[in-house]
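User: Design a sequence. Structure:
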């Protein structure tokens, strides 16, 4: 059942993005006077569809839902009647060819901007960007960032939410230059801001692999003080199998004092398959237990520990000082959506370059299995998360398709730019050789991405 729901979620999110990507190619081709033969969502054998009586275009849904294509009249793919030669793609001016090929990725950019625009206009109550805790032995601790101050900018870029902070820090992965953090004291005016320089060499080189950028950097948002009292136990979890009971209060793990649930879960998550010494209070008497958290993997393949214990307290009251409602008007939201799309596109390209240079690991690549799992989880959270996930995937499709690899849209654009400069196209031999190389590169990329997906499953 879970597999079926995951598959349906992936189809629901990816299907429209693929369809609109191909529609971009399709509509611009028709506007440029090129005859379209087939509009297909998916590859391989045809599952269903119809043929337009007016245009003769074959609209279809095909078996393999990993993309799609628009087939156009082209003399390189078969004989074309003399009276239709002016409708063939290969006969068009290079600028028309570029417009047709670029229309798909541009459509994905437009989708991402539109979805971000809707999200920015939707009021959302969030945690204010005041620092709630600074973790020891982290860049934030070494920079002596004061708890309670509000983060207003990262590297001179204004930030208003913890999500924006996370993206700014994630964009610095693999870099060694200090991160500048601009803070505002709760009692200070806007004019009295202070900027701190945080050294990030070890963090950015991957010493904190498996943690999110904010935790790795070491400044956390406000977190509730939840008593570390056990409220429930999974029947097959490590906790119940190794003696933990409902009502136990955790007081220490490996001689580290524990005063709240979040600090306990942080130690457990950071210790997969590591034997931990627990001290708990049971009937007001200390009890010593040894519990080994079961090793799990998240959607990105990062290891974490889990013991199968639930907290007793469920109600959380957030102080007004740490609440903020974020909402933008239509104009400001549109500007923010363009800025976010640009930021994420640059970060995606930068991350690809860092993976190629070895600065960050290739295990950061994700394939269709991870995308499907993330899509399913977004439906479990909220409609806003579904739109956010769709926007991020659409943006990734745009950037990926614009890479200058011959089999992708970006590679074809390079061919047509060369044709525009030379005044004639490259020879078919060169183009075919390039396509074969591109196919090998793309196949290698997919094998690596799917391999990462499978490793995360197990």
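Assistant: Done.
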């Amino acid at each position: 059942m879970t597999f079926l729901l995951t598959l349906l979620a992936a189809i629901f999110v990816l299907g429209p993005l693929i369809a609109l990507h191909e529609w971009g190619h399709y509509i611009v081709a028709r506007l440029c006077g090129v005859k379209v033969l087939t509009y297909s969502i998916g590859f391989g054998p045809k599952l269903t569809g119809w043929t337009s009586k007016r245009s003769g275009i074959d609209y279809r849904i095909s078996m393999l839902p990993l993309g799609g294509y628009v087939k156009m009249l082209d003399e390189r793919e078969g004989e074309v009647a003399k009276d239709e030669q002016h409708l063939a793609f290969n006969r068009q001016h290079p600028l028309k060819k570029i417009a047709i090929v670029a229309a798909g990725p541009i459509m994905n950019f437009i989708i991402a901007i539109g979805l971000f625009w809707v999200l920015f206009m939707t009021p959302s109550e969030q945690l204010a960007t005041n620092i709630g805790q600074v973790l020891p032995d982290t860049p934030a601790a070494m920079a002596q960032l004061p708890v309670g101050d509000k983060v207003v900018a990262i590297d001179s870029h204004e930030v208003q939410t913890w999500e924006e902070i996370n993206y700014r820090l994630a964009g610095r992965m693999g870099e060694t230059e200090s991160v500048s953090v601009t803070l505002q004291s709760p009692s200070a005016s806007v004019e009295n801001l202070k900027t701190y320089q945080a050294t990030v060499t070890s963090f950015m080189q991957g010493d904190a692999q498996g943690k999110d950028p904010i935790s790795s950097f070491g400044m956390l948002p406000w977190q509730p003080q939840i008593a570390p009292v056990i409220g429930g136990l999974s029947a097959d979890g490590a906790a119940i199998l190794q003696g933990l009971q409902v009502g136990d209060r955790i007081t220490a793990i490996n001689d580290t004092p524990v005063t709240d649930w979040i600090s306990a879960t942080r130690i457990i998550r950071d210790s997969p398959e590591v034997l931990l010494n627990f001290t708990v209070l049971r009937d007001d008497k200390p009890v010593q237990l040894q519990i080994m958290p079961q090793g799990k993997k998240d959607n990105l393949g990062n290891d974490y520990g889990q013991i199968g214990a639930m907290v007793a307290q469920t109600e959380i009251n957030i102080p007004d000082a740490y609440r903020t409602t974020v909402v933008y008007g239509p104009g400001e939201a549109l500007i923010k959506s363009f800025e976010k799309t640009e930021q994420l596109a640059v970060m995606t390209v930068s991350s690809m370059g860092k993976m190629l240079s070895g600065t960050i690991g290739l295990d950061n690549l994700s394939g269709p299995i991870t995308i499907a799992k993330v899509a399913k989880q977004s439906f479990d959270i909220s409609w806003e998360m579904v739109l956010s996930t769709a926007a991020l995937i659409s943006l990734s499709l745009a950037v990926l398709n614009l890479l200058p690899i011959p089999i992708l849209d970006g590679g074809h654009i390079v061919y047509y730019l060369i044709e525009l400069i030379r005044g004639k196209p490259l020879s078919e031999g060169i183009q075919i050789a390039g396509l074969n190389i591109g196919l090998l590169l793309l196949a290698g990329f997919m094998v690596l991405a799917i391999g990462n997906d499978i490793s995360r499953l197990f």
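Confidence is low (pLDDT under 50) at residues 204-210. The first strand starts at residue 36 and ends at 51.
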